Structures are given as C-alpha cells and as structure tokens.
Amino acid sequence: METLNFLAQGFDVALRPINLLMALFGAFVGTIVGMLPGLGPINGVALLLPLAFALGLPPETALILLAAVYLGCEYGGRISAILLNVPGDAAAIMTTLDGYPLARQGKAGIALSLSAVCSFIGSTIATIGVVLFAPLLAKWAVAFGPAEYFVLMVFAITCLGGMVGDKPVKTLMAALMGLGLATVGVDATTGVYRFTFDSVSLSDGIQFVIVVIGLFSVSEILLMLEKTASGQQAIKASGRLLFNFKEFCSVGWTAVRSGLTGFVIGTLPGAGATIASAMTYMTEKRIAGDKGRFGQGDLRGLAAPEAANNASACGSMIPMLTLGVPGSGTTAVMIGALTLYNITPGPLLFEQQPDVVWGLIASLFIGNVILLVMNIPLVGLFSRMLSVPNWVLVPAIIIVSLVGVYAVHSTTFDLVLMIGLGVFGYLLRKMDFPLSALILGFVLGELMEDNLRRALSISNGELGILWASPISLVLWALAALMLAMPGLRWWRNRRRLHASHA
C-alpha cells in the first residue's frame, strides 16, 4: 500500500504540464536520434543533458526528459534496423536478423507496428517490475562481482551459436573477430599500445560507431548497388501498415517472456540491452525449434529483442537509483545529471528525494504510452522510405554515415577505416558470416577484459576466482551446454535421418 501511495505521488509529479511537455519532447527527439545509425541512447542523452541544465530545469524534470530520450532511442533504433539493415545502436543488432527480411518481403509496416507494440509490452513489464521489485533485485544484482560478470560475458558469447545454429563455426569465428577488434588501442591497465601499427588515430581503440556503420551501413550500400546493377530491386515498400490480431497472438507470449528476461538482465549493472536482446533471441529460436524461420523473417525473432531491449532499458534504472551504480552507459550519463544537481543516487535517494525517484518511475509509464501513440501513426511514413529509389537512398545513407563517423573524432582516418571495415563486412556477408556475432563480440570484448582484469586483481592472479561462486559455476555449466548444443543438434539430426532410412 505504501508503494502505491508513493507511485501516486510520482504520477502527481509526472503529470505536471512542464513534465508532460518534456516527456513528449524527449520521446520525439529520442526516436529521431535512435533511428540515425550509430548514435544511440548514450549520445541522445548526452546531447540533451547540457541543455536541461542550462535551462534551469528542476532535477525531476531533467530526469524525466532524459529518461524519455532513453526510451525513445530504444524505440527508434528498430526503425533503421528494419528498413535499412543498419542498427541504430548495439541493442538493435538482433532486430536486423528478422526485421530486415520482413521489410524485403514487403512487410515493413507490419514489422514496424508490431515491434512498437512489443517494445511497449517490454517496457511496461519492466516498469511494473521497477515499482514492485527494485529493492529486492538491487540486492541480487550486488551478488555479481567482476568474476561473475566475466563468466556472464562468456555465456553470452557461447549463446551466439544458438542464434545462428546452422553455421556455428562461422558464428564463433565472427565473434572472435569482434573480440580481436576490441583489443585495439591502449591497454587501460599497463598503458601498452596494442595493434595500433604506430597510428595515433588507433590509440584509443576503434569506436563502436565506426564499426557498426562500416560493417552494416557501408556493406549494405555495396549490396544495394550490386543488386541495382544486376537489375534487382533491393527492397520494396510495404502494402499493409499494421499487424493483424493473428500476428499479434503469435508473438504475445514471446514479448512477455522476453520482457521479463530483459528486465532481470537490465538490473545487472553493465549487462545492458545488448546481452538481453541476444539471449532472448537465442531462447526464442530454441523454443521454436525446426518450425521457426528465424533469420528469414520470423515475427518472433523481431518481437523478442524489441521487448527485451526496452525492458532492459527500464530495468537498468534499478541499480542507478538504489545503488548509485549505472546499469548501462546511458544511465551512467543520467547519474552525471544527478550529480549536477548535487543529488547522490543510492539507497537513501528514495527517502531524501521521493519526488525525483517516483516522478521518474511514473514518467516511464507515461513515456511508453506517448511513444506507442507517436510511433504507430508514423508507420506509414517510415515504411515509405522503402519506396525511395536507390539512387536517392544510397547517397542519403552515405551522407548520414559519413557525418556520424566524422563527428566522433573529426578525422579523415575514421572515414577511411569505416570504408575499409565496410568492404571487409561486404566480403564476410558474401561468405555468409553473421555480422551480428562480430558486433556482439566487439561490444562484449571490452567488458570481458575489464572484468577479467578486475577479478584477477582481487584474487592476486588466482584463476580459481572465476569458478569460486555458485553463480559462476551455473553460468559455466550453461556456457558448456551452449557449446555442446551444435554437436547435440547434429547428432540428433543424424539419428533422425538413420531412423527415417531404417
């Protein structure tokens, strides 16, 4: 009952005209930023943080604005992933696997509208979870130390074999390529330059924006040009703009399951929406079994990552508010916003600043409704992007990609590197390597290394710390099971083949 009273107090704060206006503005800006390849929620929140402070907004209004941008970016990231096969951010990588094939089949409107509803379901589940389970899940998240996080990353990498089960060797090779790219730059611990080839431009590593735009955007441009040259239409506009009741029923439980999983993963500091979307996609593909058409335009393959990454975004608010620990890179920026107002996040925040905390939580409900109402009518506008001829679309994608990459360091080296990675990605796609595995390996690489270093530092170099806790042992067992799955699947198919011949 006390929780409901606090939530009512939060809605009183969130429904003030200025806060509603900020939520609407933030949701719109977030959607636009999210659909621009490579920008993502961190950049969206970071761009508006100085503006919120300069305008003298009160802390609860500033946080509501930034949270709306965060959720809007998670919604918007699916748009370029579905229409152009270019994920708006790392969390939207999995959306490309089935979203883009659906667009190529003339179902872009269905994919966009269904993904918006699944995003709403995931976010709503997670927001309810924030209200009910914040203190409990915060205590559980504390049980994850550096060793447990490292094993969690290993488990996430092994899950990649489950995502592209028909080519596990190529999937693992792509993930290892991503891990290799993540090692480029100065070693944060020793200060040693690694794989920089005496180039100052590589001293701080390869930026995610360059990798994702190079591998996805540039390679997609090359494929579009190739198809145009051969007289084929690369993509076609959608006929029907909204999903029907049967299509919704086919993904309803998928969205609920993925929303719950994404919320739990989101409460783990640093785990983030990327892992949530990858793990839920893998889970749903395994549940579907041989009947699924994952990777070819299965609606469940679209619903799972969309529900999970939005649920994870809301779940990441828990460690931020209750522990003062960022649950994601974006919530790290939001913690910076709190410090600008001399507010220290942590367990006492609920007692000292109830308006700020519960106003933010209530705004998550409101922001999700705003985004759903805003996104569904725009499906027709977004899907019409597919009817734009390639001679217009390709230069537009090139310009957006060049601007996005050049904005990172303002150097021509980054543009050359982007093109080089794009050609490399084009060759990998021609050889049927899954680029999603490479990107996920790149994203997880830095996290894996940091947590491994910290775990070994705590134990004075003893490797035993990596399997010392029950959580680590369970994750190692699950990782071993994931590695064994392709072999077990092959053995099972072979037995089935022999049985059919007998």
What this model shows, in words?
The chain is mainly α and 502 residues long. The protein has one domain (2-237, 246-501). It has helices spanning 2-14, 17-35, 40-54, 59-84, 93-104, 108-142, 146-163, 168-182, 208-229, 245-266, 272-288, 299-315, 317-322, 329-340, 349-352, 354-375, 379-383, 390-409, 412-430, 435-458, 470-501; strands at 185-186, 193-194. A two-stranded antiparallel ribbon has the order 1-2. Helix 4 (59-84) packs antiparallel against helix 12. The longest helix has 35 residues, at 108-142.
SSE topology:
Elements: H1 2-14, H2 17-35, H3 40-54, H4 59-84, H5 93-104, H6 108-142, H7 146-163, H8 168-182, E1 185-186, E2 193-194, H9 208-229, H10 245-266, H11 272-288, H12 299-315, H13 317-322, H14 329-340, H15 349-352, H16 354-375, H17 379-383, H18 390-409, H19 412-430, H20 435-458, H21 470-501
Antiparallel strand pairs: 1-2
Radius of gyration: 22 Å
Average pLDDT confidence is: 78
What is the first-to-last residue Cα distance?
65 Å
Helix content: over 70%
> What composes the largest sheet?
2 strands, antiparallel
DSSP, total strands: 2
Instruction: Give the overall form.
Output: globular
Task: Look at the helices and sheets and give the structural class.
Answer: mainly alpha
How would you spell out the order of helices and strands?
HHHHHHHHEEHHHHHHHHHHHHH
Strand order of the largest sheet: 1-2
Beta fraction: under 5%
What oligomeric arrangement do these chains adopt? single chain
Low-confidence stretches: 230-237
- Number of H- or I-type helical stretches: 21
Q: How many discrete structural domains?
A: 1
